[in-house]
Amino acid sequence: MSQHDDNVFVRNLTIVLGALVGLSIFVFILSQMVTKDLANSDQQGVEARIKPVGQVSISTAAAPGTAAVAAAPKTGKDIYNGVCMACHTTGIAGAPKLGDKAGWDPRLAQGQETVIKNAINGIRGMPARGGRADLNDADVKLAVEYMLAEVGVKPGAAPAPETKPATPTTVPEAKPVEPAPVTPPEIKPATPAPEVKPVEAAKPAEAVPPIPEATPAAAPAAMTTEQVTALMAQKGYACLACHQVEAKMVGPAFKEIAAKYQGDATAAATLAGKVKQGAAGTWGAVPMPPNPTVADDDMKAIVQWVLSLQ
């Protein structure tokens, strides 16, 4: 009986020890797997945190995703909507409206190259490149060709030459030349010389009254607002497109200009120079385009009128 109990005890002890050894092996293997995953995760996290923000690629092939970042090329319509629409939709300062064939015809008579050149360099009330110095010549050309296409003109089309009916030439019939009659001159007797009278003695000169001192001419009066407005409309000057007498528009009111230069002896010459050559930064961010076509007499009259406003 005692030997049987010993055998049972040994067997049970062997089973318990075997189970403990197996459990220890399982726990060891499991801990190794978890530790390895954590180590890999920590290493990847460190690499991700110290990775540079950008990378430089020296490969000739396009890097993945760069196609989506590249800006789409500009079209004439895009440039028109961003730059030209403000004036060419409403016709400010005499600008031809989009789609108005009658307004574009006089300009197209000069040729498309002239129209594009004027848009690049500026003309009358329009500043060079529409006031956007960042546009290149190709951008301006695209915008002009878009506006011309809206009135049915294809890029590069030459203006249609004006045809006139041929006038028939008639040659007058030649007539024989008749000899002119020769009339002998009539000989008249010589007339006697007139009687010579003795010369009287000269009389003493009378005293000449003193000449009154000339008074300086008064400066001409400034033109009225109605006269200046009529002058601008007659000569095609676009001053009123950006300025008004009392209200500020794109540029300052004329009365604001008069107040700024009140008492300045050089105001007339300063304003004339700004109108002729253009100016920027005096009244705001919008530059004033140059107006070299304004006649000197008209310039003097307009500046004198502006400075006379109260």
CATH superfamily of the domain at 225-308: Cytochrome c-like domain
Give the % helix: 40-55%
Strand count, sense and closure of the main sheet?
A: none
Shape label: elongated
Descriptive overview:
With 310 residues, this protein is mostly helical. Helix 5 crosses helix 6 and helix 9 packs across helix 10. Helix content is 45%, strand content 0%. The radius of gyration is 49 Å and the shape is elongated. The chain has ten helices and no strands. The N and C termini lie far apart (137 Å). Among the domains are: 74 residues, Cytochrome Bc1 Complex, Chain D, domain 2 (Orthogonal Bundle), CATH 1.10.760.10; 84 residues, Cytochrome c-like domain (Cytochrome Bc1 Complex, Chain D, domain 2, Orthogonal Bundle).
Descriptive key words:
310 residues; mainly alpha; Cytochrome Bc1 Complex, Chain D, domain 2; 10 helices
Would you spell out the secondary-structure blueprint of this structure?
Blueprint: H1 2-49, H2 66-69, H3 76-88, H4 101-108, H5 112-121, H6 137-149, H7 225-235, H8 254-260, H9 267-277, H10 296-308
Compact overview of the structure:
By secondary structure, the chain is mostly helical.
